[in-house]
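Appendix B. One record, verbatim.
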Amino acid sequence: MDIDDEPRKKTGPLSDVEKEDLSTISADELAERVQRLESEIDRTKAEIQAKTASRAAADAFFKS
């Protein structure tokens, strides 16, 4: 099996966030956390769109 075929282990800051105990956090802090995570989701989606557009432009250029 090629090393690229092996499943990647989830590590990094997002993995740490997923493992946090939310029971010790107040409702107000949880609401703020949700807002911050939603902002990060929006930022990530924008980057995906930019990369997709860049890829489409490169594909169009090299296919012409």
